[in-house]
Design goal:
Blueprint: H1 2-5, H2 7-10, H3 27-45, H4 51-57, H5 62-71, H6 74-90, H7 94-113, H8 117-131, H9 137-142, H10 150-179, H11 183-199, H12 215-222, H13 225-255, H14 260-288, H15 290-307, H16 314-339, H17 345-377, H18 379-396, H19 404-407
Length: 408
C-alpha cells in the first residue's frame, strides 16, 4: 500500500504522460529521427520471423539454429559498453548511428546471399555489430526533450521501434511466402540506405558537459547498483523474448500447422501489444509504482510462456501473445529509463552501453541454451525455462533498491 501512495514521488514525469508528446521546438528533427528509427528496425527484423526456418532450410539442426540466432548477440555483449564510453568521450552520437545502419544493411545482404550455416553465423554477427549501435539511438532522440521528459522520449522511441517490428514481421512473413525465403533479406539491406538519407535530415543536439570524461567516472557509472540491478532483470526479460518471440515460438507454431503468413502474424500481434505497452508505460508506472509494474508485467510474460506447450490451435497461440507483448513493452521501457536515472547527459551513453551489453547476454544465452534444451528435452522445456526467467523478474522486484526511499 505504501508504494501505491508514493507513486507521485516515484514518477520520472510530473505532468500528464503524453499530453505533449513532441516538444514544439524540435518537431522536425524528432519526426525525421522517428523515420530513421522506423526504417532501421524494419531492416533489422524484416526477416526475423522466417530466420529459424531459413536456417533449417540450409541443413541446420536445432542446435545450429540456436547458435546462429545467438550470433546476433555476441557483438552486442562485447561492443555496447565500448560504444557507450566512446560516444560519451566523443561528445557525439550521429556518426555511431550511421555506422550502425551501415552494418545492419551489410549483415542483411550477407544473410540473403549465404548458403551454409557457417556463413549465416558470420552474417548474423555483422547484423549484431550494427544493432550494438542501439546504445546511442534513444540518447540521440531523448536529447530533443527536456531532461525530466526522458521517460516520455524513451517511451516514444520504443513505440516507434515496436511499430517498425510489427510492419517488419508482418511484411517479412508475407514476402517470404509470396516471393521466397531470401527476398526479405535483400529488402532489409535496401531500407538501411533509405535510413541513412533520413538521418541526414536530422540535427544533433549538442551534449552539455558538466563533468570531465575519465575512466574513473565511467567506472563509477558502470557500477551503480540501480543500473546493475535493472540490467540483470533485463537479461531475464531478453532471455524470455529471444527464446520465445524471436526464437522458438515460430518453430512451435510451424509444428502445429502455421503458414508463413501466420508466422508473421503471430509475431506481429506480440509486437503490436509490445508497442502499446511502451507507449503507456509511463502512465502505468505513475499509477502503480515501479515495483508493482515490474511484478504484474513479469507475471503476464511468464504466464503466457507457460501456456504455450498446451496450445494446439493457431488462434489461441495468437491470443496468448497479447499478454506477452504488453508485459515486454512496459518492462523494457521501464528498465531503459531506470538505467540512466539521475545521470547527467554526458554519462548516459556509458550507462546505456552497460545496460544494453548486459541484457544482450539474454539474447545470447536464450536461443543457445534453448536450442540444446529443445534438442534433448523438446520444445515444451524451452518455454518452461523462459517462463521461469520471467518469473524471476517478479521476485527481484521486491529488492530494497526498488523501494520508494532507495530509488528517489
Amino acid at each position: 500500500m505504501a508504494e501505491t501512495s508514493s507513486k507521485e514521488s516515484l514518477s520520472p514525469i510530473n505532468e500528464s504522460p503524453y499530453s505533449k508528446l513532441i516538444p514544439a521546438s524540435n518537431r522536425s528533427p524528432v519526426f525525421f529521427f522517428c523515420i530513421v528509427n522506423f526504417l532501421w528496425w524494419i531492416g533489422l527484423y524484416l526477416y526475423v520471423p522466417i530466420l529459424p526456418i531459413y536456417i533449417q532450410a540450409a541443413g541446420a539442426s536445432l542446435n545450429i539454429v540456436g547458435a546462429v540466432l545467438s550470433a546476433y548477440a555476441i557483438p552486442q555483449v562485447l561492443l555496447r559498453i565500448p560504444i557507450g564510453i566512446w560516444s560519451d568521450r566523443l561528445g557525439r552520437r550521429k556518426p555511431l548511428v550511421a555506422i550502425g545502419i551501415i552494418f545492419t544493411s551489410l549483415g542483411a545482404l550477407g544473410l540473403g546471399l549465404s548458403a551454409t550455416p557457417w556463413l549465416l553465423f558470420l552474417s548474423r554477427m555483422v547484423t549484431g555489430i550494427g544493432a550494438a549501435a542501439w546504445v546511442v539511438f534513444p540518447l540521440y532522440f531523448s536529447a530533443y526533450y527536456p531532461a525530466n521528459d526522458s521517460g516520455k522520449a524513451i517511451g516514444l522511441i520504443s513505440f516507434v521501434r515496436s511499430v517498425a517490428l510489427i510492419a517488419a514481421t508482418a511484411g517479412g512473413g508475407f514476402m517470404a511466402e509470396g516471393f521466397g525465403l531470401s527476398k526479405p533479406f535483400f529488402l532489409a539491406a535496401l531500407l538501411g540506405v533509405f535510413a541513412l538519407f533520413a538521418l541526414l535530415l536530422t540535427k544533433e543536439s549538442p551534449i552539455r558537459r558538466v563533468l570531465t570524461p575519465s575512466w574513473r567516472t565511467s567506472l563509477s557509472v558502470a557500477t551503480r547498483p540501480l543500473l546493475l540491478t535493472v540490467s540483470l532483470m533485463a537479461i531475464l526479460l531478453t532471455f524470455a523474448v529471444f527464446t520465445g518471440v524471436f526464437g522458438f515460438i515460430p518453430i512451435y507454431a510451424s509444428e502445429i500447422g502455421a503458414s508463413g503468413s501466420q508466422l508473421g502474424l503471430i509475431t506481429m500481434i506480440n509486437l503490436g501489444f509490445s508497442a502499446l505497452g511502451a507507449l503507456v508505460a509511463v502512465w502505468v508506472w505513475e499509477r502503480l509504482g515501479y515495483r508493482s509494474t515490474m511484478v504484474y508485467s513479469a507475471l503476464l510474460i511468464g504466464g503466457s510462456l507457460f501456456a504455450i506447450p498446451f496450445i494446439t490451435a493457431i488462434p489461441v497461440l495468437m491470443a496468448v501473445q497479447i499478454g506477452f507483448g504488453l508485459g515486454n513493452g512496459v518492462l523494457m521501457t521501464l528498465f531503459m529509463v531506470l538505467s540512466i536515472r539521475g545521470l547527467p547527459q554526458e554519462q548516459q551513453a556509458t550507462a546505456m552501453g552497460v545496460f544494453q551489453a548486459v541484457y544482450a547476454i539474454g539474447m545470447l544465452a536464450g536461443p543457445l541454451t534453448s536450442g540444446f534444451l529443445g534438442s534433448s528435452l523438446g520444445l515444451s522445456a524451452v518455454f518452461y525455462l523462459a517462463a521461469l526467467a520471467s518469473l524471476l523478474i517478479a521476485v527481484l522486484a521486491f529488492l530494497h533498491i526498488f523501494s520508494r526511499r532507495a530509488i528517489d
